[in-house]
Amino acid sequence: MGLRLLLLPLGCLALMLRSPGVAEFSPSLDSDFTFTLPAGRKECFYQPMRKEASLELEYQVLDGAGLDVDFHLLSPKGETLVFDERKSDGVHTVETEDGDYMFCFDNTFSTISEKVIFFELILDNMGEDGQDEEDWKKYVTGTDLLDMKLEDILESINSVKARLSKSVQIQTLLRAFEARDRNIQESNFDRVNFWSMVNLGVMVVVSAVQVYMLKSLFEDKRKSRT
What band does 224 get if pLDDT is binned at 50, 70 and 90? Predict the structure, then answer.
């Protein structure tokens, strides 16, 4: 069983591999990642969180026999918060404390089939919005002469930002659903073709046997006696 630790900086996911072609996520409160989990392996990730923040994690098995995987979510104290056994997808939200949260995808129960797994992290109340609000308040001077307060503008902007983030999240999930459905359809297509060829071969063999048996019934057996 292999255990790969991926360190995730605050507010984003960063893939920390020592192999060539290191990949990183751009800083964002919403991050998603798709990776291949080999048979008999376990992959773990870390996400630093702040106190009284919110961590939402959604995962889906896009491809692989059974479309299932074991999922573990552990607190900074090592306590198991979530354990999903051989599930194809899941959505979990936890209120966090200071520390590194670890979540693992376990495919050790499979000896042959690898799994393609998609997951998305959504981090809320990480403190960045509060900092933006403080930056806005620096310019709230003499705004009583304006019809619209800067707080109202900030509220509207935050509302638009939240809706845009939600739209991006939904589009990402739809792409994941589409990828999983496409993999299922391609697998079914291969199975239908395989069994169609098997049935065709059986029909050819049965037809040949029937022709031979019918032909043998009408053979002149007197020739064989002479």
Answer: low
- What distance lies between CA 51 and its chain's CA centroid? 26
What is the token pair recorded at 42?
Answer: 């376990």
Contact 107, 115 (CB under 8 A): yes
Listed in sequence order, the residues at least 6 apart from 109 whose beta carbon sits closer than 8 Å to its beta carbon are 70, 86
- pTM of the predicted model as reported, rounded to 2 decimal places: 0.56
Tell me the longest C-alpha to C-alpha distance in the chain: 126
Model pLDDT for residues 91-131, shown as the tens digit of each residue = 899 999 999 999 999 999 998 889 999 998 988 887 655 45
Whole-number Cα distances in Å, 114 to 40, 136, 156, 183, 194: 8, 50, 46, 13, 21
Question: φ, ψ for residue 23 (rounded to 5)?
Answer: -105, 145
CATH class of 27-127: mainly beta
Q: What is the DSSP string of 133-194?
A: HHHHHTT-SSGGGSSS-HHHHHHHHHHHHHHHHHHHHHHHHHHHHHHHHHHHHHHHHHHHHH
For residue 54 the two structure tokens come to 């919110």
* Predicted pLDDT of residue 73: 95
pLDDT attached to residue 115: 92
Q: What is the pLDDT of residues 125-161, one digit of tens each?
A: 876 554 555 555 555 555 554 555 677 777 778 778 7
Q: Structural domain boundaries of the chain?
A: 27-127, 151-219
Cα distances (angstroms) measured from residue 212 to each of 10, 19, 39, 168, 223: 76, 63, 49, 66, 18
How far, in Å, CA of 100 to CA of 103, rounded? 10
Q: Which residues face 36 on adjacent strands? A: 116
